[in-house]
Amino acid sequence: MKLDNEILVATCVLFFGFFFYFFSQKNYVLSIIMLFAFSNYVAILSQIGKKTEANGVINYTPRYIDWALTTPLLLFTLLQRTKIPLPPEKIFFILFLDVVMIYLGYLGILANSVPDQIAFFILSSLLFLFIFFMVYQTHPSPLLFWFLFIGWSLYPIFWILHQRKILSNNLYSEMTAFLDIISKIGYGLLFQL
Question: Fewest Cβ atoms nearer than 10 Å: which of 28, 59, 75, 159?
Fold first, then answer.
């Protein structure tokens, strides 16, 4: 078994274990996040949704499905810890924009040309900044806000390095798994404090 597969298996085990932990803590939103993440890594290990570009860069569709489901849930938990209550329609709007942000990122991996990839990357990044600007205005928990903001900011940096083949497929996969663990399990543990 290759090193990256061992890391992905360990990541699966962690998410599966923390699904039960958060469930036992009666934090059902966090337990659902863990279950989606677990499913994503099982799919990646099974080579489901693997997309290999002409230059050899490998991306996985399940990763974007996971993020389209889990990042709105993470934002939802963050919005639960704000000092300014939001009307439900504004919460829905923020969560919807988050899904669009992930979709634009996914279109970036599907794009056949570098200019198209860059365009989708820029659009997704601008939406990311706008979403966090709106969340920041609600005066959320500073620890949770900055934890998510900084963690999520690293994903596009690693994606660029991967697309430019500065990061190998294995290293990108391992770094993304590490970020997922920090951004989901680490965030969940902080949320419970």
Answer: 28
